[in-house]
Amino acid sequence: MEDIYDVIIAGCGPTGATFANYFGKHNLKVLLFDTAPDIIDYPRAVHIDEDVIRIFQELGLYEDMKKDAIKPFENYALVSKKDKVLFQFQPDSSVSEDIPDCNWILQPEIEKHLRNGFSLYPNVTFLKETTWTDLSQTKEELSLVLTDKENTVTRVKAKFLIACDGGKSPIRKRMGISVYDFGFKKEWFVIDTNYFGKQLFSEDHKQFCDPKQPITYVNGVNNHFRWEFMVSEQDSALSDELLADKMIPKLKALFPIEEFEIIRQKKYAFHTLLANSWRSGRVFLAGDAAHQMPPFLGQGMCSGIKDAKNLSWKIVRACLNPGEETEQLLDSYYTERAPQVRKIIRLAAILGGFIQYSNPILSPLRNGLLRIFNILPSKPIDALINKHLYGLDIDNFSRFKHSLVGKRLPQPIVWTKDDQLYFDELCGFNWVVLYRAESKIYPLELSGVLKFIPLVTGFPIYGNEIKSVLFTKWMAEQKADFVIIRPDKFIFNIGNEKEYDTIIQRTQSYLNKIYSN
């Protein structure tokens, strides 16, 4: 007899584990399997942004993570060979109160917290050292044959399969999904270390723009330090050991190398790839299976986790209410996320081109441009980051969309009648209408989907009221009386009280279709 699940997740890296936490919270029956016996015990990804922290926060994992797995940093610097600042930038794209924009992580510890999270849900089953050997699907379901380390064969069925099985994704290949190569590829050599000395080092994230040897510097969580070295064509054939012998002496002028313990040294090649489709019937791609990018914006792992944020609530709706409307909702996963990831890949490649520029004659011109950029205000850079790293192209059925549709809603700490908490905690995974209580806006009495939250200027008296100076100011700046928020905390619509009836009726009509069960 075949076991039947709502969702099967292939791969228990950060992306797959995030999906499992989301589905666990929504009470779907989930099977998660991975080929490995355990978590990889050395660092790989080292950065997350505020948007990812916001995801961990709503999954109930952030408070424990920040104790041993997350460390904020403020400055991003492009420096010369001699560690002189060419360009320094303090990213300020966070829209959450008291949550930093840039953060170092220890990926093994992050994955432990994610696994501890989904282990709390009895509706999530996790199989280690398990592979799939056959995959088929119909219009209504899919079937997968699994084999464990004891060669025990199990056939399982599900409504959906999410492939989080890495850059080489066997499932992507099985589905015949091609990838687009942006053509930006380079080899780098990474050295991860633990520091056991007593000296203090710069907390800045640095890219050494040496045309002969570009180097990346990371002062990470606890005693973790990382250096990455671009590998030249003539060194490409060298083994990891020979590369280490050549690269480590380059650090001796700046660091007491004898006080660092090497925990990993490995050459790797980064790619710029984007799957041409992220869906084949009931199978979806996510994380590295869907996209791969250079590390220069720190968005590789972040992008996979954001895939999970975007797709999970749509899968939940499709499981509970299958039909044409939720099928279209599932298709929006690709149309919303793929354009955003495409922009990130291109921006990362442009930044990488600056860092990796190796022409010794023209590199002084590059350095001069960076020094000019360094005296310019940073606000345009923050606006560029917000537009390309965080905005989604959301279809809200409006002929003329407000410029904030598809943007992240700010997340202040708000006051209620009884408590003080982050706004996301108050929203949960609901569709929310935040509205100015002083406006002529009235909640829909019969709405079972929309959660109405009135924003007051005085102290909250009733249970659903909130007070927030940030939201009051933000509403005034936008000349808005209400904002409609999706379960993933992106803005679905926004307007004034004159527009309210038309927008809320259109929204309610749409939600009735995808929530009819």
UniProtKB/TrEMBL annotation:
<feature type="domain" description="FAD-binding">
    <location>
        <begin position="5"/>
        <end position="346"/>
    </location>
</feature>
<dbReference type="InterPro" id="IPR002938">
    <property type="entry name" value="FAD-bd"/>
</dbReference>
<dbReference type="GO" id="GO:0071949">
    <property type="term" value="F:FAD binding"/>
</dbReference>
<keyword id="KW-0560">Oxidoreductase</keyword>
<protein>
    <recommendedName>
        <fullName>FAD-binding domain-containing protein</fullName>
    </recommendedName>
</protein>
<dbReference type="GO" id="GO:0008688">
    <property type="term" value="F:3-(3-hydroxyphenyl)propionate hydroxylase activity"/>
</dbReference>
<dbReference type="InterPro" id="IPR050631">
    <property type="entry name" value="PheA/TfdB_FAD_monoxygenase"/>
</dbReference>
<dbReference type="GO" id="GO:0019622">
    <property type="term" value="P:3-(3-hydroxy)phenylpropionate catabolic process"/>
</dbReference>
<dbReference type="Pfam" id="PF01494">
    <property type="entry name" value="FAD_binding_3"/>
</dbReference>
<dbReference type="InterPro" id="IPR036188">
    <property type="entry name" value="FAD/NAD-bd_sf"/>
</dbReference>
